[in-house]
Amino acid sequence: MFNEKLKMLRKLLHLSQDRLAEEIGVSRQAVAKWESGDIFPDITNLIALSKLFDVSIDFLVKQPEICSKKEGLQETVEVDQTELRQFLYRAKIKTYASGIEQDTTGLREYSHDYSYEESPYHYHDSYVGNEIFSGQEIVTFDRQPIWTLSYQGRVLDTDFSSRFLKEALFQTTPERPFRGPVHFQKGALVYHCQIDGDLDWVIGREEVYFNEKKLYELVFHGGLLKE
Where do the HTH cro/C1-type domain residues begin and end (predicted)? Predict the structure, then answer.
């Protein structure tokens, strides 16, 4: 729901309702009514919120899509969240975060792709772009999609190091297998990751700084797929 997403995004940026209202040029009462679900913002304010939170308008207003086959809806898979959490953790540290380039023969020429499998689970991460990029992670169980995470990021400065980012992402844990840890530091390079939610529905932001200069940022959201 829009109002729930708005609350999560506002808290991720540590904004009060007053500060959010000031940022987009509306009253605090309007923000309060949006978050309570009493009213819905017009397109001008949706655009302002989209720019402020660095997310798409589709993300703000659309419900998660239902997984389906050509012949109709799939049956819902009962997910063992402890098992899925452990699998995600192993998949994350053995793909992009490992620093090992994978053979992507047969995949799209313009994308970067990573895969990991422990049957019946399979993990696939695919992204396009470089300095500005967008991607999606998908987990399947017996070839049926059960969990996904979409992300969009950008490099803000030439001092950014993808090697440092991979080191940070390698520090993820089974308890928080979404991106990296809350905090990771190596010399003057600092990684931060804030999340709200859990496996069923999660939203978050990660950033890399050199001293106090922001070098990189990424937003992500995802969760379980259900009928």
Answer: 6-60
